[in-house]
Amino acid sequence: MTKLLGSKIKIIVIAAAALVVIITGLSLVYLNGLGAADESDDTTVSVSIPSGSGASAIVDILDSEGLVKNGTCAKIHARIGGYDSLQANTYIFNRTMTLPEMMEAINTGDFNYVSKERFTVIEGATVNMAAESMAEDLPFTAEELLAKWNDTGYVGSLIDKYWFLTDEVLAEGIICPLEGYLYPETYFVTEENPTIEAVTEMMLDKTDEELSKIRDDIEDMDMTVHEFLTLSSVVENESLFEEDRPKIAGVFINRLEQNMPLQSDITVLYPLGERRVQVTYDDLEVDSPYNTYLHQGLPVGPVCAVPARTMEDVIDYEESDYLYFFATEDGKVIYSRTAEEHEKTVEENRWY
């Protein structure tokens, strides 16, 4: 009898221990499932929560945006989390946030995560293009934005604040000091009444973030940041396809090293404020320090906004002995080593 009782007690203890292990394991799985979807990706994600959305429906929305690590765990949390005042709005989250953090922000309507305005600067945009686009979404006119960006006193204060801005942006002949420095990205403004200064510094902060990653690489190229961004901007607007950027960067670097003029059509059209395929002989004579047909070396400054991918392609440019390139009507780029080869290519493939 004592033995039997002892056996039963032993079974109960083992069962209880097993239950504790199972409960502990499930708890760990549950808590882990509520964690960040991707702790290394802090890219902002805009999430719109419609009026009347319940906790379960909100989890589905967050999941569709890639913000949920484990859908089952998230659904359980939605049921037991006690979220009883969920507020419709557009929120700005990122994949490093946990599910409870996002649900709490929605439940309280946390102003820190509420999107008030958004605007986009597209890759390859000039400051004029950026100003026009931003004026559609922000309480400023394009003229007000450009006036601020051309205010040398204001630019001087930015030079004091940001390591990558130098007096090079105020050189004679520069059309806009901040050209090439306003990083192309979609931005979310959460201030009730944003200022031009705040919005501008938001873009420059992003530029700071991207340039800081490659600061040593730029120094290894024996270029200033201004020179690097200038070259990168030319590559950005001369390259139609991703695979061509390192090759085209290599062509321009070869020309610089051989003291040949860059002869980039982009640099001719930029001071004219135009974007088109055909460049006339009159265009080539435009008297501007941006014109790389008339002036040796790089143009006086960047000609557009440059994304990180183009900066990386300039750093990792493809070495070759090409000195010329020509884009056909379908976008294919033909590279040449000599002027004679290039002239023949143009003659056989001219389409404009």
UniProtKB/TrEMBL annotation:
<dbReference type="InterPro" id="IPR003770">
    <property type="entry name" value="MLTG-like"/>
</dbReference>
<keyword id="KW-0472">Membrane</keyword>
<keyword id="KW-1133">Transmembrane helix</keyword>
<dbReference type="Pfam" id="PF02618">
    <property type="entry name" value="YceG"/>
</dbReference>
<protein>
    <recommendedName>
        <fullName>Endolytic murein transglycosylase</fullName>
        <ecNumber>4.2.2.29</ecNumber>
    </recommendedName>
</protein>
<keyword id="KW-1003">Cell membrane</keyword>
<keyword id="KW-0961">Cell wall biogenesis/degradation</keyword>
<dbReference type="GO" id="GO:0008932">
    <property type="term" value="F:lytic endotransglycosylase activity"/>
</dbReference>
<feature type="transmembrane region" description="Helical">
    <location>
        <begin position="12"/>
        <end position="31"/>
    </location>
</feature>
<keyword id="KW-0456">Lyase</keyword>
<dbReference type="GO" id="GO:0009252">
    <property type="term" value="P:peptidoglycan biosynthetic process"/>
</dbReference>
<keyword id="KW-0812">Transmembrane</keyword>
<comment type="similarity">
    <text>Belongs to the transglycosylase MltG family.</text>
</comment>
<comment type="function">
    <text>Functions as a peptidoglycan terminase that cleaves nascent peptidoglycan strands endolytically to terminate their elongation.</text>
</comment>
<dbReference type="GO" id="GO:0005886">
    <property type="term" value="C:plasma membrane"/>
</dbReference>
<dbReference type="GO" id="GO:0071555">
    <property type="term" value="P:cell wall organization"/>
</dbReference>
<feature type="site" description="Important for catalytic activity">
    <location>
        <position position="238"/>
    </location>
</feature>
